[in-house]
Amino acid sequence: MTALARGLEVLACFRHGEITLSNQELAQRCKLPKSTVSRLTMTLTKLGYLIHVQESGRYRLGTACLALGSALLNKLDVRKIARPMMQELAEFSGASVSLGVRDKLSMIYVENCRSSAALTLTLDVGSRMPLASSAMGRAWLAAVPQEQRLEAMEQIHGLDDLAWPHVKTGIDKALEDYRTLGVTCSFGDWNKEVNGVARAFDPGNGLPVMAVNVGGPSYNLSPKFLLDEVRPRLLQVVRAIEEALPV
């Protein structure tokens, strides 16, 4: 692994909601020697990708990371096209409507719209959803070519051999739902108090497969409401996004 790849692995260790990490925590997550991580954090700090918090000796992401992320998001025209339609769907459903792309074994939000009339999830741009158990992740698995799906499933299997049979059952059910309903579902699978449905699409122009999900607290979004009322509108929104994208 090159120094660049290792440096990127260090930056990827920071999860949504985490402010600081120590060299020891970074070393554990990267599975690298602490001495190697110390050299990497020193270099990343000099370049502005990390900030060294003197009082605690820990590290937080620097402004150079923000510049990189902003540059990427600003170039994603699909966000601008999708947002008005996503917001309308959020208001109808009383839920959160998000657009995401795959990053390793997660889906990461690149756009998020919330209903102004109801309590919704507090997730936002940059939040991550598990590939195997979230509606969005399952939609991605259902939409990509079989070779890509099997590769991802093999990686998911490697995370927990004992849990794999249960996880695979959920994925298989999602693939069948996608064929018959046009969406994937996660009714308490990712979080027992959260329900959601999702649909994926290929934006073209070299961009990866993306997915739109509608989700929220289970007491506010029943499976019946999501399937009977939200699902048809979600399918319409995704079709409209596809038609509006430049060829």
From TrEMBL:
Pfam families in alphabetical order: HTH_IclR, IclR_C
Top-level taxonomy: Bacteria, Pseudomonadati, Pseudomonadota, Betaproteobacteria, Burkholderiales
Keywords: DNA-binding, Transcription, Transcription regulation
Protein name per Swiss-Prot or TrEMBL: IclR family transcriptional regulator
This protein's record includes keyword DNA-binding: yes
The IclR-ED domain, residue ranges: 64-247
HTH iclR-type domain span: 1-63
Domain of life (superkingdom): Bacteria
InterPro entries the record matches: GAF-like_dom_sf, HTH_MetabolicPath_Reg, Tscrpt_reg_IclR_C, Tscrpt_reg_IclR_N, WH-like_DNA-bd_sf, WH_DNA-bd_sf
One GO MF term attached to the UniProt entry: DNA-binding transcription factor activity
BP term (GO), one: negative regulation of DNA-templated transcription
